[in-house]
Amino acid sequence: MKDIVFCSNNCFVLYSAAVQAKNSENKESVPSLPQSPMKERPAKAFHQYSNNISTLDVHCLPQLQEKVSPPSSPPIMFPPAFEAAKVEAKPDELKVTVKLKPRLKAIHSSLDDCRPPSKKWKGMKWKKWSIQIVIPKGSFKPPCEEEIDEFLKKLGTTLKPDPVPKDYRKCCFCHEEGDGLTDGPARLLNLDLDLWVHLNCALWSTEVYETQAGALINVELALRRGLQMKCMFCHKMGATSGCHRLRCTNIYHFTCAIKAQCMFFKDKTMLCPMHKPKGTHEQELSYFAVFRRVYVQRDEVRQIASIVQRGERDHTFRVGSLIFHAVGQLLPQQMQAFHSSKALFPVGYEASRLYWSMRYANRRCRYLCSIEEKDGLPLFVIKVVEQGHEDLVLTDTTPK
């Protein structure tokens, strides 16, 4: 068709050839793309060359709409596969910028910051914990009981009882107050009303011996003799432990004999430092603790009679937690109603007992017990004396 027909159309033919040359240059510069699935039309139309080029729009960049992501982790938006193919077609001429996490603009009207909130359970469900134990080198001295008591007292975590009143009881032999050491004078034993002796002071006296039942005999006899004997160590009266060497006149208190380094033997004999053998001895006794039951043999009937006959007295008679104050009296007309087959109920009897409180746990109070007369019969009265409360008086016709 280029060679035929009219001369008036030569210019148009030449124009079509120029367009064809231009299109051929464009085809060489643009890489081959897959052809459109559309069927090619017949070659009757002269604009078929421009239709092939219009399937790829390389003059307009793809415009991505800006999407605001929610506060929580936003999804990542990627371009479609077809647009990605276009980007890869001309990497030198086409540049695409994608903002994955756009910045959120702060709202000036609100006080809260529009930053993404932190994780809800961060630092709450689990935490990392580490501990270090440092053991000092060298010898470690454990604290004593006094230091521990002082520390607990500062913390205020312990219940400390009231301090025990000082024991003013004095031994009639060694004149020392209170109970002695277990491996020494030992505990105090009651000899008579307000008369006390240490167990070992009485046991190691020359005249005293012990029965199989644990009774100490001749303690009063040893005490009378000790009032006239002077100790060789402390030069005080009351010494009753003498040296068993024949014609030796050295005599000591039991505590002074230990201090003077006298030698004691298992057969209850003692030798002074001048006559004791040198070195150790098989029968030597070095431990004086007495854990068996030992008591002073005495006439209790005579002792109780002496208490009643004294009337007003300055001494305290105590049996365990029972403190005796007054014995009372019975008149002849009261004998029928004021006694039973096991006990007497003298009017005026008074005693007090320290026992557990009815109001507080782990606390003691005083119960004052007395016997009165009402309608010719005994009336038993218990008066509860407790600090911080009014006295509570309980009465009944029987002691139970």
Fold blueprint:
Blueprint: H1 10-29, H2 48-53, H3 81-89, H4 145-155, E1 188-192, E2 195-198, H5 199-203, E3 209-210, E4 215-217, H6 219-226, E5 241-242, E6 251-252, H7 254-259, E7 263-264, E8 270-271, E9 295-296, H8 300-310, E10 317-319, E11 322-326, E12 350-356, E13 364-374, E14 377-385, E15 392-396
Parallel strand pairs: 4-9
Antiparallel strand pairs: 1-2, 3-4, 5-6, 7-8, 10-11, 11-12, 12-13, 13-14, 14-15
Enzyme class: transferase
Protein name: [histone H3]-lysine(4) N-methyltransferase
Catalytic activity: L-lysyl(4)-[histone H3] + S-adenosyl-L-methionine = N(6)-methyl-L-lysyl(4)-[histone H3] + S-adenosyl-L-homocysteine + H(+)
Q: Would you tell me the structural class of the helices and strands? A: alpha+beta
Give a quick account of the main beta sheet: strands, pairing sense, barrel closure.
6 strands, antiparallel
Basic shape: flat
CATH architecture of the domain at 188-295: 2-Layer Sandwich
In total, how many beta strands? Answer: 15
On the 0 to 100 scale, the average pLDDT is 75
Gyration radius over CA: 59 Å
The helix fraction, in percent, is 10-25%
Strand content: 15-25%
- Ranges where pLDDT stays below 50 over 5 or more residues in a row are 1-22, 25-40, 42-58, 82-92, 108-112
Write down the CATH class of the domain at 188-295. Answer: Alpha Beta
- What distance lies between the first and last C-alpha atoms, to the nearest angstrom? 148 Å
Q: What would you give as the CATH superfamily of the domain at 188-295?
A: Zinc/RING finger domain, C3HC4 (zinc finger)
Order of helices and strands: HHHHEEHEEHEEHEEEHEEEEEE
Number of helices: 8
Main-sheet strand order equals 10-11-12-13-14-15
Keywords: Chromatin regulator, Metal-binding, Methyltransferase, Nucleus, Repeat, S-adenosyl-L-methionine, Transcription, Transcription regulation, Transferase, Zinc, Zinc-finger
InterPro entries: EPHD (IPR034732), FYrich_N (IPR003888), Znf_RING/FYVE/PHD (IPR013083)
Catalytic activity: L-lysyl(4)-[histone H3] + S-adenosyl-L-methionine = N(6)-methyl-L-lysyl(4)-[histone H3] + S-adenosyl-L-homocysteine + H(+)
Domain PHD-type: 168-276
